[in-house]
Design goal:
By secondary structure, the protein is of the alpha/beta class. It has two domains: 2-162 and 312-325, Rossmann fold (3-Layer(aba) Sandwich); 165-311, Rossmann fold, CATH 3.40.50. It is 42% helix and 14% strand. Helix 4 (80-86) links the parallel strand 4 (65-69) and strand 5. The two termini are 13 Å apart.
């Protein structure tokens, strides 16, 4: 089967999908018109919107399955969906959060959530309604995103964030470290809750020996090199779920702090090892981790096991193929 992913790469996920699908004998390629500082290029063809439009006809004839991302397609206005459906080619749409997250819904269950750099809710709903006319299955990473899109598809599938654990060897924290290094890597500080995180860290620095690095705008390999040195990694404390930084950190054997809102806790596997902290509880959670090297190491070991069982691309790749087989 020949599979195309378009129009953009999302945190290296598309490249991982394409590589793993190739191991099953499929030909998969990802097109990316959005340049990011992380510089994800593996199994990805860099392009622009004009080239995507120009080459759509050729793609329609060549590919057997279209996997679109971030509530977008190859042609502005998504006029290609009707043509793909008419050609009898299956389509799936993969949502990642900010493309569909609506404050009116999110704030009903979460007083902390902040939504920035997102489309207008009216535009989100309009695009989802249009996509739902042609696409039977939507994909999301967790139940936080699920709620926004479930009315628009015949079926919505949960596909966990993926990481290549084989190439992410663990570097468990030293339980005897007396001055632990905390790392926070906000791609979007307002969304992640960086201000509240750094307020808590500043307060803790007055009471305990610790180091802190804020990782921003680095290529992925540079960021991962810093993650490996960490004793503790903070992901995000406002959204109510966890993101790719948490997955990368768990694969490295690092304890992770993130906020999982109460209604979502039961939707994750019961062994989820994240240290759950809202803005109101962050100080206490961090203090416990800072003062217990044994706890940091135990959480790191648990996190690595969790990443192996649920986020390994070999596991996620099989789940993705199962979704394709239902189209």
């Amino acid at each position: 089967m020949k599979i195309v992913h378009a129009p953009m790469e999302i945190g290296g996920q598309v490249g991982l999908f394409c590589k793993e699908l190739g191991k099953f004998g499929h030909q998969a390629v990802g097109f990316n018109y959005f340049r990011a500082f992380q510089n994800y290029t593996e199994n990805i063809m860099l392009t622009d919107q004009y080239e995507l439009m120009k080459n759509f006809g050729e793609a329609l004839n060549y590919f057997d399955l279209f996997h679109f991302h971030f509530n977008m397609t190859m042609i502005p206005g998504m006029d290609d969906l009707k043509l793909i459906q008419k050609a009898g080619k299956p389509i799936v749409m993969h949502h990642w959060g900010n493309d569909v997250r609506m404050l009116s819904m999110a704030s009903l269950h979460n007083p902390y959530v902040r939504i920035v750099n997102a489309p207008k809710e009216s535009d989100i709903k309009r695009r989802l309604s249009h996509v739902g006319e042609y696409v039977p299955i939507g994909i999301v990473q967790d139940h936080e995103v699920y709620e926004y899109v479930k009315p628009y598809y015949k079926e919505v599938c949960i596909l966990p964030l993926a990481i290549d654990v084989v190439h992410s060897s663990p570097a468990y924290p030293d339980e005897h470290e007396s001055c632990p290094l905390i790392i926070h890597a906000p791609t979007d500080p307002l969304f992640k809750g960086t201000e509240r995180i750094e307020e808590a860290i500043s307060k803790l620095k007055l009471e305990y020996p610790l180091r802190y690095i804020r990782v921003e705008k680095l290529a992925r390999e540079e960021a991962l090199a810093l993650y490996r040195q960490a004793d503790l990694i903070i992901d995000q404390i406002l959204c109510g779920s966890y993101g790719l930084v948490a997955v990368e950190a768990m694969a490295l054997g690092k304890p992770v702090v993130a906020f999982i809102r109460e209604a979502l806790i039961g939707t994750f596997p019961p062994e989820l090892p994240l240290c759950n902290a809202s803005p109101d509880t962050l100080y206490d959670v961090l203090r416990t981790l800072i003062t217990s090297g044994a706890l940091r190491k135990r959480k790191g070991i648990e996190g690595r096991k969790f990443a192996e069982h649920y986020h390994d691309i070999r596991v996620v790749g099989c789940q993705l193929l199962s979704i394709y087989n239902r189209l």
